[in-house]
Amino acid sequence: xxxxxxxxxxxxxxxxxxxxxxxxxxxxxxxxxxxxxxxxxxxxxxxxxxxxxxxxxxxxxxxxxxxxxxxxxxxxxxxxxxxxxxxxxxxxxxxxxxxxxxxxxxxxxxxxxxxxxxxxxxxxxxxxxxxxxxxxxxxxxxxxxxxxxxxxxxxxxxxxxxxxxxxxxxx
Length: 171
Prior knowledge:
- This protein folds into two domains: 2-77, Alpha-Beta Plaits; 84-165.
- By secondary structure, it is an alpha+beta fold.
- The longest helix has 16 residues, at 50-65.
- The protein has helices at residues 18-27, 50-65, 76-84, 110-119, 156-165, and strands at 2-9, 31-36, 41-46, 70-75, 99-103, 124-127, 132-135, 152-155.
- The strands form two sheets. It has a four-stranded antiparallel β-sheet, sandwiched between helices. A four-stranded antiparallel β-sheet has the order 6-7-5-8.
- It has five helices and eight strands.
């Protein structure tokens, strides 16, 4: 079993409680399920990894909720690599809340990069191995940046916390 962080997109409006989400995933066979509803993140243990885990969680949630939820999974090593590769790590302390990782299933296409460039109003971005790094000049929700359709953004503090949650602790 591996410990994975599951980033969900499309849960707004579902009125999905922490206990209900946890119950759905535990009934599907996932172990040590932890839910942070405020960010729509889940940490869990499972036999599947990567795309297989994404597909299984997405299917499980669609069956239970009747709504399509986009699912993006990263393991401890991937999250550690994302943290290490942050091109904006020297951005002044309090402004790290203006840095985000945008998780996608594949690197941004030429068309997606072009849309980002056209819509940027002070935002900076760089393609990473496991995400798109974005630095916002003001709060992320104020941005008009045209992000790729299939992805999910998380503030830097959330990514850092996710890396810690996925660490396998042996007793």
